[in-house]
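User: Hello! I'm new to structural biology and keep hearing that structure can be predicted from sequence alone. Could you demonstrate with Biotin-dependent carboxylase uncharacterized domain-containing protein? Please show me the input and the output so I can see what each looks like.

Assistant: Of course. The first part below is the input, the amino acid sequence of Biotin-dependent carboxylase uncharacterized domain-containing protein. The second part is the output, the predicted structure written as tokens.
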Amino acid sequence: MGMKIMTGGFLTTVQDLGRIGYQETGMAVSGVMDQHSAKIANILVGNDCGEAVLEVTMMGPSIQFTEDNVIAVTGADLGFAINKQPAAMYRALSVHAGDILEFKALKTGLRAYIAFAGGLDIPVVMGSRSTNLKSKVGGFQGRKLEAGDEIGFRAPVRVMDYMERRVAETEIMPTKEIEVRVIMGPQDDCFTEKGKETFLNSEYAFTSELDRMGCRLEGEVIEHVDGGDIISDGITFGAVQVPSHGKPIIMMADHQTTGGYTKIACVITVDLPKVAQAKPGVKLRFKAVSIEEAQELLHEENVRLASLRDSIEKEKNEETIRFKDAGALGSAAPEVQAAAKAALTAAFRENALSPAGDYIYWVPAGTFRIRVGEEEFTVELEKETFGLR
């Protein structure tokens, strides 16, 4: 089958990158609140970045696996454990039928993400598996997960290649104060110069009024030219609305499709995860950047994610071989070195000692003799090569 929900936690839903292209019909985009963490989790288990995950808010669920698979947990530290033993985040882990996953306590951040190799067996509705709670559309029956729910895996695996390399750097969750970069507009002309200065130079705090639709902030009043009401127009994830009372509201993943309040700015894509992971009381300062800066920052993030996937999955030959002592091979002709490294790589990949065309055999642990043509070399490899122990 896949897994059975024993307890649903505070708010656990199925989410992917959202239901794109339907706002004109009144359907919200929805999707994960912290795209960065969700994408990392999917990369670690070999999925496309847009595969559906479980988004876990504040207090996590208890899940019993009924089928083997590989999972990864990223985002907030909610005390992730398997069979009551603390488990590593930001790393691919094998789970087996009968194992129980749970979260013990909220430590840092607000939302964790669980990715499952091969994806979840959830219907696609309007191009997405995301849960829209308000419309009761998508995800698991259009609602949060509850005790007794069962979800299957589409293409589970028992183990994956390069498990030792399926690890990412742990992201730092906001705890006290964050800087959030914004692009000013589209209605920044509805605010006085004093109001815009207040917005960019004041400290705000997240209140307890935060959910998947939006986050209300407490702080200095932002002055309008002539009130905060406008003819309703489109809203996007990260839009900063300022009603007539002058207190900003950041619109989040389940935001309505249109709104009738002035929008002074919009949070740039790469900083939305900071907002999604901030708990009540966390301080916030806004900083204006250009569209070009925002685009460059997003490009840099996409490059980092692509590099993470490449570091895990891309077949490597000579780059993967790391010598502790190359001996005479270090001064051999480049084509001989390349042939030796390729042969060593093939030997490890295929768990074979005699790849075609070359002869390799172990001496002590970590030391090998390899013949390339008429030449024989003795080399010692670094322990980390292919997880050698």
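User: So the tokens describe the shape?

Assistant: Right, they're a compact way of writing down the 3D structure. Reading them back into a model, for example: The radius of gyration is 25 Å.
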